[in-house]
Each structure stands twice: as structure tokens, then as C-alpha cells.
Amino acid sequence: MTDPVEFYFDFSSPYAYFAAHKIDDMVEGFGRTVDWKPMMLGAAMKVTSGLPLVKYPLKGDYCRADWDRLARFQELPWSMPENFPIATLAAARVFYWAWDQDHAKAKAFGWDCFTTFFGKGIDISSREQIGEIASRHGFSADDAIAATNDDVYKARVKDETEAAVEKGVFGSPFVIVDGEGFWGADRLWMVKRWLRAGGW
Amino acid sequence: MTDPVEFYFDFSSPYAYFAAHKIDDMVEGFGRTVDWKPMMLGAAMKVTSGLPLVKYPLKGDYCRADWDRLARFQELPWSMPENFPIATLAAARVFYWAWDQDHAKAKAFGWDCFTTFFGKGIDISSREQIGEIASRHGFSADDAIAATNDDVYKARVKDETEAAVEKGVFGSPFVIVDGEGFWGADRLWMVKRWLRAGGW
Questions:
Q1: For chain A, which residues lie within 8 Å of any Cβ of chain B, measuring from their own Cβ?
Q2: pLDDT band at B1 (very low <50, low <70, confident <90, very high)
Q3: Contact B96, B38 (CB under 8 A)
Q4: Which of A51, A78, A134, B12 has fewest C-beta within 10 Å?
Q5: H helices then E strands: how many in chain B?
Q6: DSSP character for B193?
Q7: Mean of the pLDDT values across residues A113-124?
Q8: Which of A149, A178, A14, A173 is nearest to A81 (CA)?
Q9: B193: domain CATH number?
Q10: In whole angstroms, what is the distance from residue B180 CA to residue B188 CA?
Q11: B48, B56, B65: residue with CB nearest A59
């Protein structure tokens, strides 16, 4: 089977940042491609009654420390954003708009959203910030800002989020390979095993 | 530092079953020992407002499928218990009672609790079942059953659970090495890295 591997995530998810850094290289080693699928994690969390990780006593503190050490392990820049979690509708809409033009450029834009937010600690919730990031990857900032208000991409993010929940996606990151779901940045070893064996 | 590595878990936790299978061998490879610390996960969950995994929509179904594939990966017997999750007070009290006599035998008893519950799908909430398991590891079934009602071990499980929550334990399994916490069966690679480097 050669359908693209689906990588579901919210741009406000630290564990998605850590997974996004690795997933394309890993999957491409098996001759497969990755479709990035930004979604609104908050909508999925309504289904599972989940809260943002940092809102939980104990678990919130653990996660903050865990992100810090994961960044050191993966040698990634890390600067915990002051405003967190944030609304990532603008980033997701512009991502799909960019994706419809050029997958590689869209991923470069998406990765830049992640590193701007988690690597530099800069809030990426505003359409202006998203426009500025888009402009670094061959897109017009004005066109990108317009896309954040485009009914097509408003609907796209909503539809992709609903489709994700229907497929069982309840967290970020969540990878689907040939219908099999893998939740969490810690499960890329399992994705790899699936890809190597073509199932089990 | 050579303090024992602490392995916190609830006997009703599938991910603890998967971690328990590996942790001693892994840690002993670094010349350290493991203290098994059964606790009442429900008490920790009150602090974090958590629910048993299978109670969550989507996540519950995902976890059931995940346990099945993890068992195949680790080549462990797996038989989802009909009654799940269960109260594991009897198992925890007898574990500490056994631990105070012989660490190795206590771990053998503890591992048998896990495999009886998750490998064979047999309910281990009754003190009679716990007595029977204890009798397979050099303990008197009657003495084990008596220990389930012993004020010393009632207090011990309560105290260990409270101490765990104070140390930040909010889930199962949870490993603490030299004060550093690692949550989840998926984080043994990180425990290993800590043990190898003596921190980071």
C-alpha cells in the first residue's frame, strides 16, 4: 500500500513539534510520503472531555519539564511561549491554502510556524504573524492573510478536524498509516515498525 | 548515585504490565536496582481529575487496540479482563507485605498478579485470588489473606500513594530516577539514557 501517511496535529501542540521534526525523514526512508493535517485539537478534546495538558495539576508541570528535556534530546530550539496554548486557526487555514499550491513549501511554512512558536516563543495566533511566516516561504503575506478569512479554508479546517475525529483522532500528534492509528510523539518507533513490516 | 530506581504503578494498569516486563533487566544493566511501588492510581487521578483510560470516548477504543498490539510486540500473553479497571488494594497490600520479607519473591508475586490479570484475564481484586497467587511464590495463602486486612499494610499503601503524589506521580507506570520522573511505558528509552549518562 502506498497511500500517504497522515500526520494529524495542532500547531499549538509541543509533542507535535517534536514529531514534526522527524516524521518526514522517517517515513520517506520507507518510500512513503506524509500528508500534514493540521486540525483544531480543541474540537477533538470536546469529544474526549480533555483539557490542555498544562491545565492539569501535576501533569502540567511534568509536561513543561518534559518538553524542555525532549528539546535537549532532539537538539531543537525551545522557548516555552508565555501565551499557551493558543488558537491556531490562522496557521491551519494558511497551511491548507499553501498545501494546495505546493506541499514542500507548505511543510516549510508549517515547520516555521512550529519553530517560531516553540523555538522562539513568539505567539503565532495573529494573522499578521502567520502572513509574515508565509512570506519567508515564497508566499505573499497579503494573500496568506486573505486566506485566513477565506470561506474555502475556513471550511477546510473544520472539515479536516471533523474527519480526523471520525477516524478516531483524539490527540496531537496522531499518525495514521493504512488505517492504523498511532498517538503521540513517542510512537514513531511503532509507525516505523508498521512501515517496515507492512502491518503485523 | 546508586539509590534504587522507583517504579510506581497500579496493578490494574495495562501500560504498567508492559513496563514491568522490561524495567528490571534494563535498570540492572546499569548496576542499579528497582523498587516496585504499587499505588492506588485512583487517588492520584483525583488530583489530576483523570478517569480510567477506557472511560474516554475515542481514547478508550484506541487504548484497547494499543494494548493488543503492544502485547504482540513484546510477545506477552494478553487477555483483556472483562472487569476492568479493578480495585487492587489487596494486591498492593500483599505486595508490600511480601516486599518486607523478600524483594525478589515480592516481584515474582507482583509479576504473577499482572500476568494473571492481563495475561489470563482473571480478576485479581479478591483477597482469595491474591492469596492463591501468593501461595505460588513461597508465601502462605492464609498469611497473605491476613495481610490484606492488616492495619500496617493498609496504612503502607495509603502512605506510599500519598508520597507518590507528593513526588508528582499522576499516572501509571511512572519511574523516578534520582528525582527525575518519567511517565509511561514508552519512556523507558529515556530512563535508559538518564542511567547511561548519569543525568544530562
A1: 44, 47-50, 56-59, 61-62, 65-66, 69, 72-73, 165, 168-171, 181, 183-184, 186-187, 190, 193, 200
A2: low
A3: yes
A4: A51
A5: 9, 4
A6: H
A7: 98
A8: A14
A9: 3.40.30.10
A10: 13
A11: B48
- What sign results for the dihedral spanned by CA atoms A49, A54, A55, A57? positive
pTM equals: 0.94
Does A69 sit within 8 Å of B47, measured CB to CB? no
Residue B133 has pLDDT above 90, yes or no: yes
Predicted confidence band at A52 (pLDDT cuts at 50, 70, 90)?
A: confident
Phi, psi of B174 (to 5 degrees): -140, 120
Chain-chain contact of B165 with A62 (C-beta, under 8 angstroms): no
Select from A51, A23, A47, A52 the least CA-distant residue to A37.
Answer: A23
Read off the C-alpha cell for A158: 473544520
Q: Which of A62, A181, A193 sits opposite B168 (nearest CB)?
A: A62
CA distances from A143 to A62, A154, B66 (A): 40, 15, 43
Domain that holds residue B157: 5-197
Burial (0-12, 13-18, 19+ Cβ within 10 Å), A124: buried
Run of H or E residues at B9:
strand B5-9
- Over the range B137-157, which residues count as b (16 or more CB within 10 Å of their CB) and which as e? bebebebbbebbeeeebeebb
Instruction: Cite the DSSP H helix spans in A49-150.
Output: 59-74, 89-99, 103-114, 127-135, 141-147
Distances (CA, A) of A44 to A3, A38, A50, A106, A161: 24, 12, 8, 23, 8
Of A50, A62, A169, the CB nearest to B181: A62
User: A20 and A27 in contact (C-beta within 8 Å)?
Assistant: no
For residues B160 and B38, what is the distance between their CA atoms, to the nearest angstrom? 8
pLDDT, averaged across chain B: 95
Angle, CA A97 vertex, CA A94 and CA A101 arms, to 5°: 135
Residues of B engaging A, defined by a Cβ cutoff of 8 Å: 44, 47-50, 56-59, 61-62, 65-66, 69, 72-73, 165, 168-171, 181, 183-184, 186-187, 190, 193, 200
